[in-house]
Amino acid sequence: MEKPILSVPPTSSAQAIPLYLGDGLLETLLPELLEGEGFSAVFIVTNETLAPLYGNRLAERVKGARLLVVPDGERFKTLETAASLYQQLLEAGADRKSVLVALGGGVIGDLTGFVAATFLRGLPFIQVPTSLLAMVDASLGGKTGVDLPIGKNLVGAFKDPLAIVSDLEVLHTLPQIEFRNGLAEVLKAGLIGDRHLFACLEAGEVEQLKEIVLAAVRVKVDILSRDPLEQGERAFLNLGHTFAHAIEQATRYRVPHGQAVAVGLRAAAWLSERLGFASDGLLARVERALSRLGLRSAVPEAQVEEMLQAMQYDKKRQQRQLRFVLLKSIGQPFITSEAPPEALREVLEVIREHPGR
Ligand SMILES: NC(=O)c1ccc[n+]([C@@H]2O[C@H](COP(=O)([O-])OP(=O)(O)OC[C@H]3O[C@@H](n4cnc5c(N)ncnc54)[C@H](O)[C@@H]3O)[C@@H](O)[C@H]2O)c1
């Protein structure tokens, strides 16, 4: 059987999680894994887009597997969808030796992981991420959960999968816009912890997909190995995200998450230079990388006041100071709560304008 490419540190269990990465794993390795472990039943959870592309075929390949299909979209990452899955599992006679397979992007991964953490107080599950974002980010680190009407990811649990199986071939059907969303997180990984990865992206080199995905995975895995439960440096993974959340709120989620993260990375680089933490040149390099990757670097449609308000609301909810992940240089992130209000207003004005204007 294919060997794991690396081990992901656990967050809620004692066992490191094997991560498999390669081409064609849905056809070869995954059926082998599912049939070899002595599960009482296999339930493949996927959505209406991915069922005809991959779900049906996988269910046919694995003896006795059942497909559970939910509607596609973040708006279905809810307790209601989880409840409908509990119901279907009960009706099909699932027990604690049954396994759930999360076949999809981050939405399916989060939702299925949450059901696996809670149904019958927990049953095993396997992450099969099909989007670039889920491969480099959402499938790693054990966070699962659903949204509430008032906000994203407000109910959840840490739950480690038994394995993570990333089949690069499925990325061929991923819509271009979703691929770019994932690239924003890959760029973030390069900025946090891999100068070589960043340099490739800056040069627009994304053809070596396996190397790029693996490099981004390694950055997150390294951080998880030192801080699995987000007591310290796991927060580096939020580089650009305080700005991204403000942009998403101020534009009523019309700017997709990955594009908001892209602009947020530019904001973080700008603020790092403005506050004298990073030397000249960082911002220009980030702007070049964004442009090479076809990512947004400005959000003219977001109002400064609304972004500021979103940040204040976030701060109030968490009853703490606003904290920013900034960069001393590429590969050297740090956390600060010392961003003066005038610099914050300035940076929000900057990201409404395209670079070079
Ligand atoms: N748990 C974590 O640590 C973590 C980290 C980051 C993000 N997330 C969560 O991940 C979610 C975002 O994930 P996402 O960007 O993958 O979004 P997504 O799951 O909505 O997938 C994006 C779209 O691409 C489609 N798709 C996925 N793979 C495809 C493929 N191979 N071919 C064709 N279409 C495909 C999906 O059906 C969907 O329409 C959010 O809910 C976010 O909160 C979780």
UniProtKB/TrEMBL annotation:
A single GO cellular-component term from the record reads: cytoplasm
Provide the GO biological process annotations.
Answer: amino acid biosynthetic process; aromatic amino acid family biosynthetic process; chorismate biosynthetic process
The superkingdom listed in its UniProt entry is Bacteria
Please give the InterPro entries that the UniProt record associates with this protein.
Dehydroquinate_synthase (IPR050071), DHQ_synth_AroB (IPR016037), DHQ_synth_fam (IPR030963), DHQS/DOIS_N (IPR030960), DHQS_C (IPR056179)
Q: According to its UniProt record, in which pathway does this protein act?
A: Metabolic intermediate biosynthesis; chorismate biosynthesis; chorismate from D-erythrose 4-phosphate and phosphoenolpyruvate: step 2/7
One GO MF annotation is: nucleotide binding
* Major localization class: cytoplasm
EC main class here is: lyase
Would the keyword NAD be found if you checked this record's keyword annotation? yes
| One Pfam family it belongs to | DHQS_C
Identify the residues that the record assigns to the 3-dehydroquinate synthase C-terminal domain, covering every copy. Answer: 182-316
Residues given in the record as NAD(+) binding sites: 72-77, 106-110, 130-131, 143, 152
| Cofactors named for this entry | NAD(+); Zn(2+); Co(2+)
List the keywords (alphabetical). Answer: Amino-acid biosynthesis, Aromatic amino acid biosynthesis, Cobalt, Cytoplasm, Lyase, Metal-binding, NAD, Nucleotide-binding, Zinc
Cellular compartment(s): Cytoplasm
3-dehydroquinate synthase N-terminal domain: which residues?
Answer: 68-180
Q: What is its EC number?
A: 4.2.3.4
Residues binding Zn(2+), per UniProt: 185, 241, 257
- Check the record and name the CDD domains matching this protein: DHQS
Name the catalysed reactions. Answer: 7-phospho-2-dehydro-3-deoxy-D-arabino-heptonate = 3-dehydroquinate + phosphate
PANTHER family per record: 3-DEHYDROQUINATE SYNTHASE, 3-DEHYDROQUINATE SYNTHASE, CHLOROPLASTIC
Family assignment from sequence similarity:
Belongs to the sugar phosphate cyclases superfamily. Dehydroquinate synthase family.
- Described function: Catalyzes the conversion of 3-deoxy-D-arabino-heptulosonate 7-phosphate (DAHP) to dehydroquinate (DHQ).
Q: What is this protein called?
A: 3-dehydroquinate synthase
UniProt gene name: aroB
